[in-house]
Write a structure and sequence with these properties.
The complex is a heterodimer of chains A (315) and B (324). Chain A is built from twelve helices and no strands. Chain A is mostly helical and 315 residues long. In chain A, helix 10 (224-261) runs parallel beside helix 11 and helix 10 (224-261) runs antiparallel to helix 12. Chain A is globular, with a radius of gyration of 24 Å. Chain B has 324 residues and is α/β, with parallel strands linked by helices. Chain B contains ten helices and twelve strands. In chain B, the strands form two sheets. Chain B has an eight-stranded mixed β-sheet with strand order 6-7-8-3-9-10-12-11, with helices on both faces. Chain B has a four-stranded antiparallel β-sheet with strand order 2-1-4-5, with helices on one face. The longest helix of chain B has 18 residues, at 187-204. Chain B is globular, with a radius of gyration of 21 Å. The chains are: A mainly alpha (315), B alpha/beta (324).
C-alpha cells in the first residue's frame, strides 16, 4: 500500500508538468493585455509598453514559461498583478472559504445522497422510490446558478433565515456561527451532486441485489435491513466510491458559479475575477493548485477503492 | 408427521398480466435423516420448488398460488416473516448452485460463517470464530485457522462450496436444501462434495433435499427420487426401485442419456424435442410430444398418478413394464 502510494505520487510529476504547459499556454491565449487593463483607459502606448517590459511579458513565451516553472518549483508562484502580493497568499486567503464550502458540500452529498439512495433501492418501485428518483432527476438537471438565486430569493430575501452573500472568516466576530453564510451555497452546490449519488447508490444497489450472495445472506435468516446495509450497500459502495472522484471535479467547476452567485471570497470566484483582470500569475497558480488537489483526491479515491474491494490489489 | 411435508404446491410466474404455472401441485415428504432427490431438466421448476421451501421466492413475479409447506409441524406459508427468519439458516439451510458467486466478495469467509452463527445463537465473537474453524475443519478445509481469513476470491470453486456447506451447517440444521450443489464443479470435486454431504448427514442426522439435473448424482446420494417434468412429478420412487424398474418413459430417457464409461458407445441417446416453453399449452400428457411410446390418448388426457407399488408412483397412461 505504501509502495503503491509512493509510486502514484511519483507519477504525479510528469502529469503536473504536462498540466503546467497547458495551463500556461491557455492563460496566455486569453485575449487582452494585462498592462493595458492595469493602467486603465487613459494610458498611452508608451506607458503600456514600459509596463509590459517591466512585467517581463515582452519576452518569448518559452522564456516566460521556464522562468515561471523555475520559480514555481522553488515555491514561488509569482506576484499578483492586481493585488501586488504573492500569489500563494492570494490563494491562501480564498482557501478558507473554499475548503469549508467543499467540506460542507461533501457532507451534504453524503447525508442526502446515500440514505435516500438506499431508501429508493430498498423500496424499489414504491412511491418513496418514485419521489426520490424523480426528485433526483429534477435536481440533477437544475443549473446551480438558478438554484442558488432561488434559494437566496426564498430563504435570504423572503424568509430572512440566512444571509444572502459574503462570508466573514470563522476567526472573525461570530466565530464558527459564521458557517451559516455557507449553508445556502453548500446546499446549492450539493443538490446536483447529491442527486447523482442518489441515482448511483440506487442503481448499484439494485444491481447488487440480484447477485447470488444476497440470496445467501437472506437464506441465513438475516433481517432485510441487515441484508440491505451489510450486504447490498457494502458492495454497491465500491462503485459509488469511484464516482466521488468525478463528483469532486464537478464540484470545482460548479463552485466557480456558486461562489460568484453568493459573492463568496473563495477560490472559484478568485479564478473568475483573475481572468477578468488578466492576472496571469494568479490564474496559473490557482489552476495548478486545483490540478494538484484533483489528482490527490483521485489517488485517495483509488486507495479507498482498494480498501472497499479486497479483489483489487495495489501491486 | 415427516420433517418436511409439501402438499399440492403450485407456483406461478406472472408475465404480461397472466399467471403462468411453473410448478403444478407437487406433493412429497422428507423424513429426518433421509435424502430426497428431485431431478429434471432445466426449467422444470425444481429450483423454484427449493426456493419456495426455503422461503426465498422473491419479487412479485414468482408466487406460490396453492398448497402447503409444513416443516417440523409448522406451516411455513402462514408463518410471520420474523418466525420464518428464525427458522431460515438455523433449522433449515440451503446451499446453491454457484459457489463462485454465492459468497459475498467483500467479506472474509470466516466473517460470513460467523455472521450465520451469531444470527441465531447468542455467542461471543471468539466463540463463534472457534465454531467457524470447527465447521471449516468438518468440511475438510485444510488449514482452517488460516483459511478463515481468506476472501472468497482466494479460494477455488470446490473450496467455496465447502465454505457454503460449512455456513449452512453453522446452526445444525434439521434440513439441508442443496440446489445443484455440484453442477458448477469439476467431476472429481463433485464426487468429493457429494461424499462429504453424505458423511455429514450420517454425523448430524439432517435430512437433505438434493436438486439436480444429473441422475448419476441422485443415484449416488438419495434414498428416494422424484422425477420432475414441466412442473409435475412424473415418477416418485425409492432410488433402488427407480433404477431397477423404471416406469415413466421420461425417466427412462434420462437414464439412457447418462454416458456409461464401461462400454463403448458412439452416440448418447438424447430425448428428442425440447421442454415446452413457459405458457405454451400442451394438451394431454406434457411429455407426449417427446415420448416414443405415446399413443392417441396421451395427447388427449393428462394422466393421473398411478401407484405401481406402495412407494412407487408415476404419471403415465402406459408405464413401462406394467400391464395397465
Amino acid at each position: 500500500m505504501l509502495a503503491y502510494t509512493f509510486k502514484r505520487l511519483l507519477a504525479l510529476i510528469p502529469t503536473l508538468l504536462a498540466a503546467s504547459v497547458l495551463i500556461f499556454l491557455f492563460v496566455h491565449l486569453i485575449p487582452g493585455d494585462p498592462a493595458a487593463i492595469l493602467l486603465g483607459d487613459t494610458a498611452t502606448p508608451e506607458e503600456i509598453a514600459e509596463l509590459t517590459h517591466a512585467m517581463g511579458l515582452d519576452r518569448s513565451l518559452i522564456t516566460q514559461y521556464f522562468l515561471w516553472l523555475g520559480n514555481v518549483l522553488q515555491g514561488d508562484f509569482g506576484t499578483s498583478i492586481f493585488f501586488r502580493i504573492p500569489v500563494l497568499s492570494v490563494i491562501a486567503d480564498g482557501a478558507e472559504t473554499s475548503i469549508l464550502l467543499a467540506s460542507m458540500t461533501m457532507i451534504w452529498i453524503m447525508l442526502i445522497g446515500i440514505p435516500i439512495g438506499i431508501l429508493a433501492a430498498t423500496r424499489h418501485g414504491s412511491w418513496v422510490d418514485q419521489i426520490a428518483s424523480g426528485g433526483a432527476m429534477l435536481f440533477a438537471s437544475i443549473p446551480t446558478f438558478w438554484l442558488g438565486l432561488y434559494l437566496i430569493l426564498i430563504f435570504a430575501v423572503g424568509l430572512g433565515w440566512f444571509p444572502s452573500s459574503g462570508f466573514p472568516s470563522i476567526s472573525d466576530e461570530g466565530g464558527l456561527w459564521n458557517i451559516r453564510y455557507l449553508l445556502l451555497p453548500s446546499l446549492t452546490l450539493a443538490a446536483p451532486n447529491a442527486a447523482l449519488i442518489i441515482r448511483l447508490v440506487r442503481a448499484s444497489m439494485l444491481d447488487v441485489q440480484r447477485e447470488d450472495h444476497v440470496r445467501t445472506a437472506r437464506a441465513k435468516g438475516l433481517h432485510p435491513t441487515k441484508v440491505a446495509i451489510r450486504h447490498v450497500f457494502r458492495n454497491a459502495m465500491i462503485s459509488v466510491a469511484a464516482a466521488f472522484g468525478f463528483t469532486f471535479a464537478a464540484l470545482i467547476s460548479e463552485a466557480v458559479v456558486t461562489e460568484t452567485v453568493f459573492s463568496l471570497p473563495g477560490i472559484g470566484r478568485l479564478v473568475v475575477q483573475s481572468i477578468l483582470r488578466r492576472d496571469y500569475p494568479v490564474i496559473q497558480g490557482v489552476i495548478l493548485v486545483i490540478v494538484c488537489l484533483y489528482m490527490i483526491i483521485n489517488l485517495l479515491v483509488d486507495l479507498t477503492y482498494a480498501r472497499l474491494d479486497p479483489r483489487v490489489s495495489l501491486k | 408427521m415427516a420433517l418436511l411435508e409439501v402438499s399440492n404446491l403450485s407456483i406461478a410466474v406472472a408475465a404480461g398480466g397472466k399467471l403462468l404455472p411453473v410448478v403444478q401441485g407437487i406433493s412429497f415428504q422428507v423424513e429426518a435423516g433421509k435424502t430426497l432427490g428431485i431431478v429434471g431438466e432445466s426449467g422444470c421448476g425444481k429450483s423454484l420448488t427449493s426456493l419456495a421451501i426455503m422461503g426465498l421466492l422473491e419479487g412479485s413475479q414468482v408466487r406460490i398460488i396453492g398448497g402447503t409447506i409444513h416443516f417440523n409441524g409448522q406451516n411455513m406459508l402462514t408463518l410471520s416473516d420474523k418466525k420464518r427468519r428464525e427458522i431460515m439458516g438455523a433449522e433449515m439451510a440451503m446451499i446453491f448452485q454457484e459457489p463462485m458467486t454465492s459468497l459475498n466478495p467483500v467479506y472474509r469467509v470466516g466473517d460470513q460463517i460467523i455472521e450465520a452463527i451469531r444470527q441465531h445463537k447468542k455467542q461471543t465473537k471468539q466463540q463463534a470464530r472457534a465454531r467457524a474453524i470447527e465447521l471449516l475443519t468438518l468440511v475438510r478445509i485444510p488449514d482452517a485457522e488460516k483459511r478463515i481469513e481468506s476472501y472468497p476470491h482466494q479460494l477455488s470453486g470446490g473450496m467455496r462450496q465447502r465454505v457454503m456447506i460449512a455456513m449452512a451447517l453453522a446452526c445444525d440444521p434439521k434440513l439441508l436444501i442443496a440446489d445443484e450443489p455440484t453442477t458448477a464443479l469439476d467431476v472429481t470435486v463433485q464426487a468429493r462434495i457429494l461424499e462429504l454431504l453424505k458423511e455429514l448427514q450420517q454425523q448430524t442426522g439432517m435430512a437433505i433435499v438434493l436438486i439436480s439435473h444429473d441422475l448419476g448424482v441422485i443415484a449416488e446420494t438419495c434414498d428416494s427420487v422424484a422425477v420432475m417434468y414441466r412442473g409435475k412429478f412424473v415418477e416418485v420412487a425409492p432410488s433402488a426401485e427407480l433404477f431397477s424398474t423404471v416406469a415413466h418413459p421420461y425417466t427412462s430417457g434420462l437414464l439412457s442419456s447418462i454416458p456409461v464409461s464401461d462400454h463403448e458407445i458412439d452416440r448418447l441417446d438424447a430425448i428428442p424435442g425440447r421442454v415446452p416453453m413457459l405458457g405454451e399449452d400442451v394438451i394431454g400428457c406434457a411429455f407426449h410430444p417427446r415420448c416414443n411410446l405415446a399413443q392417441e390418448c396421451c395427447s388427449l388426457k393428462d394422466p393421473e398418478e398411478v401407484s405401481l407399488t406402495q412407494t412407487h408412483f408415476t404419471r403415465c397412461h402406459f408405464p413401462i413394464g406394467s400391464n395397465l
